[in-house]
Amino acid sequence: MAMAKVPILVAVALMAAVASCSAREPNICMPLAEVAATAADDAVAPLIHALRPLLGSGGQLGSHGGVPCDSWRLGVEAYNVRDWKMVPANCEGYVGHYMLGSHYRRDSKVVIDQAIAYLDSLRLAGNGKEVWVFDIDETMLSNLPYYATHGFGARPYNATSYNAYVLEGSAPALPETKRLYNKLLTVGIKPVFLTGRTEDQRAITVANLRRQGISGWMNLLLKQPGFKGSAVIYKSGERQKLQDAGYVIVGNIGDQWSDILGAPEGARTFKLPDPMYYIG
Amino acid sequence: MAMAKVPILVAVALMAAVASCSAREPNICMPLAEVAATAADDAVAPLIHALRPLLGSGGQLGSHGGVPCDSWRLGVEAYNVRDWKMVPANCEGYVGHYMLGSHYRRDSKVVIDQAIAYLDSLRLAGNGKEVWVFDIDETMLSNLPYYATHGFGARPYNATSYNAYVLEGSAPALPETKRLYNKLLTVGIKPVFLTGRTEDQRAITVANLRRQGISGWMNLLLKQPGFKGSAVIYKSGERQKLQDAGYVIVGNIGDQWSDILGAPEGARTFKLPDPMYYIG
């Protein structure tokens, strides 16, 4: 009896969340606005219809025909679910609503609030050697406009269309991360971008960041041609170089566990939510 | 408008979840059953009344007068929120319903499903040297019967009443963890309990485990009198001793990050949910 009621309630609650988000989160809800504005577009319209039926069967609480999506997402964020290739098929609707509604933003805000509380607790040396490492994708910039029209991670990764999107240089800044970034600049901690994006994407990445009002970073570290190895090896190696050059990594933030695992991790790490993809 | 609707929906959904749990989760819902059975008991009855008003103001989605409780819980599980002393006051009702309803069990099941999938993927040496480390409190045994009558972690820790509860030896086994435990025994991996409980609690802890049908462990490692140091130092030190004695830690599971951080962590770690308390 209880189970029969829940999907309906969840559907109504989710609709309420989506309806409320455009006023409060212009950046994050841009994809939704795009979807609405281009409802006649064949490439986009099926998404809208695909989301609805999923709510009843594979929604927030349901486990009919698949994993319970909220528990799966928690498993991802707590690093219990690893090495996954795609969002479970029954969770496309759940992840879509999570990302487009206010939930993703609310979860991100708690992370950034913790980062700022940590920052406020520090006694800084102020010697110009203190840095904070930022990942880019789903950390500083959001690729949600792309994922919103490509199944929110529930469809196979398409390098061609994804890279075409990156080369547009149009990814919006994540507002919570930007709040942390700006605060760091005011206290004299130097931001360092450390990204899995490749060296050939430097110009468009710089242009994208600038268009989003982001500037003042010390380094933009991109993956060099020919590098073979995991994200953990790559990123911890780059952090080691920073440390060897005399920098103190006071903080490190990313949306993937591979951004923040592997010594030297940084004095404190922060994991932003990302239920759309996994990088090992 | 959307915000006004949400608390009502959440309250109904939560009530549905609570109503459904007694049939499905006799162990976890024992405290609730106790509460119902002893509603005339002054010590217990106020809990029921305390939970209800909190739903409207500090429930799952609300952030009126406090943190958004679901985002706070995610922050705890993803190790973004650290060193916290108590559950935020506005989240007592949220955490209570999370723990007593089906949500906690569902989240735990995903973790154990991952652990068993990992186990199934292993090529075991079968040489009697493979072990799996288990924490006890909120990992193998549940102290929910205690916390259900002491504010679910939203009230100051009371060592006297908590220790009195431990000495009853009545804590129920967590059914998902027991499923993993039994599976390990069948494949020849030896369970090792590694707990912050102290040596003087050995007899009652053994009795409690046995009463819950748990047996066959290799070691029960308790904290020795006079040990000073963090949980991470204590537990990683004990794991190092296991490794030095020739054991291979194929897995390590706990409800606290301090159970699973600090080399040697074990080949793979699992973090069970626990929004009630933090041990650093």
UniProtKB/TrEMBL annotation, chains A, B:
Residue intervals passing through the bilayer: none
Range of residues in the leader sequence: 1-23
SUPFAM superfamilies attached to this UniProt entry: HAD-like
Keywords: Signal
One Pfam family matching this protein: Acid_phosphat_B
Keyword presence, RNA-binding: no
GO-annotated molecular function: acid phosphatase activity
Name recorded for this polypeptide: Stem 28 kDa glycoprotein
Organism: Aegilops tauschii subsp. strangulata
